[in-house]
Design goal:
Layout lengths: L1 H6 L5 H18 L1 H41 L11
């Protein structure tokens, strides 16, 4: 019963539900922009880290292929420039 008395704002259950919906809608509307900023910041961090590690890995792989290319390729082959 304690939860019902806390949730119930007015005597009418319908009116209480309506008031809660309006309050939650207003709260979510005002929290929209900070939440979007937080998500965009997080995705920018993740994207930057992924790009950094991909660049680093491809650079290492290209260097390894250049150093050990004589064991991987036949005499007429070249290392692709896609890396």
């Amino acid at each position: 019963m304690a939860l019902e008395s806390t949730v119930q704002i007015t005597e009418s259950p319908f009116l209480s539900i309506l008031v809660w919906i309006v309050l939650l809608s207003i709260t979510l509307y005002f929290a929209r922009k900070p939440f979007h900023r937080a998500v965009m910041s997080f995705s920018r961090i993740i994207g930057t880290e992924c790009a950094y590690h991909l660049r680093r890995r491809l650079t290492q792989k290209k260097g390894w292929l250049i150093e050990h290319g004589r064991f991987l390729f036949h005499p007429g082959w070249t290392i692709p420039n896609a890396w």
